[in-house]
Design goal:
Helices cover 39% and strands 19% of the residues. It is an alpha/beta fold and 329 residues long. The strands form two sheets. It has a seven-stranded mixed sheet, sandwiched between helices. A four-stranded antiparallel sheet has the order 1-2-3-9, with no helix packed on it. Strand 7, helix 8 and strand 8 form a beta-alpha-beta unit. The longest helix is centred in the C-terminal third of the chain and has 15 residues. The relative contact order is 0.15.
């Protein structure tokens, strides 16, 4: 499909392939390197925020100051709204968070009196979580964790927030989740939504090998059907509008445009490629004015959001992130 796509580190290139059956894109080689995540999560990436995942450390440092940590997370990252939505009126669940990072979601769930446990392949983040939030963490991927617990532990809910796109085999991951779920257990997933963008788009996602897959709703429909699973998508747009001032229609129209390939994040020397990222993040005066008209003027924003959600793209998931729940039976 696409050869020699730029990678996360300068001079690294990857081939992008597409699956006609499930509408997924994936890279070659499909290889996860835990050491890369230690670099991504290190303090020196904070300067470029999301490109280096430094914002997660900021969240981890702030969350201890909040009496209701899950509400704090929802205010800072809309992905967590679906966790709050699902857990409403539920008590004392056994919950596993896979891809726990610095551990703040696992901590927030513990504060809600759930029996939560978090795992991640990054030693940097798990060490931080153990030192900051307590003993309910382990440095492991899901397969090795399953091997360590055997048949001694089952979960009501497994949470994977922005994780499956990092994995070399998302379908196998989902199958492994169900091997340690209780009979009525659920798997909750959020991930970038390939189906949101125009047909023919190539890899509008984090550069490989940080992201290895770019998945669409058709991908999860295919996985659910192949494995006899039920599937429900969350209305993430309604959560976004509760917590953010945004024009969904304009964002959608922008997604129809051809999007520039992102530059590499790290130079070959190991230094951050700050120059390219800073140039991408500097809006012009015209863009600032347009944003003010379309976003800050409430009647225009409200009418645009109504048209988008009710007429133009009413079917879930209709945002750049998809959030879904999987279960058997």
């Amino acid at each position: 499909m696409y050869s020699d796509h730029v990678g996360y580190i300068e001079n690294d290139v990857y081939d992008i392939y597409g699956c006609d059956s499930c509408d997924a894109q994936f890279v070659s080689p499909l290889k996860v390197d835990p050491k890369l995540y230690d670099i991504i999560y290190s303090d020196r990436t904070n300067e470029i925020g999301p490109a280096g995942y430094g914002q997660h450390l900021i969240q981890a440092k702030k969350i201890s100051n909040h009496d209701k940590p899950l509400e704090f997370l929802i205010e800072t990252d809309i992905n967590y709204s679906v966790v709050g939505d699902y857990l409403k009126d539920k008590k004392n669940l056994d919950i596993l968070e896979v891809g726990a990072g610095y551990g703040y979601l696992t901590y927030a769930l513990k504060k809600l009196n759930h029996n939560s446990f978090g795992i991640d392949i990054s030693r940097v983040t798990i060490d931080y979580a153990l030192q900051t939030f307590g003993p309910n963490y382990k440095c492991a991927d899901l397969e090795s964790f399953i091997g360590s617990i055997g048949n001694n532990r089952k979960f009501d809910l497994i949470i994977a927030i922005e994780l499956v796109e990092h994995l070399s085999n998302p379908e196998k991951f989902i199958k492994n989740c169900f091997s340690i779920l209780k009979p009525n257990g659920r798997v909750l997933i959020t991930t970038p939504n390939k189906g949101y963008y125009r047909k023919g788009s190539i890899w509008i996602s984090d550069l490989p090998p940080v992201h290895l897959f770019w998945l669409s709703p058709k991908t999860f429909n295919y996985i659910a059907e192949e494995n006899g699973l039920n599937l429900k998508y969350f209305d993430l747009a309604s959560h976004i509008l509760k917590h953010d001032k945004i024009n969904l229609l304009i964002n959608y129209l922008r997604s129809r445009e051809k999007i520039r390939i992102r530059p590499h994040v790290f130079k070959a020397s190991g230094e951050l490629n700050l120059e390219n990222h800073n140039s991408l993040n500097q809006p012009s005066l015209l863009k600032k004015l347009v944003r003010f008209i379309l976003v800050d003027i409430a009647p225009i924003r409200i009418l645009s959001n109504f048209l988008y959600r009710k007429i133009i793209n009413p079917k879930f998931p209709n945002t750049s992130t998809q959030a879904l729940l999987l279960w058997r039976g």
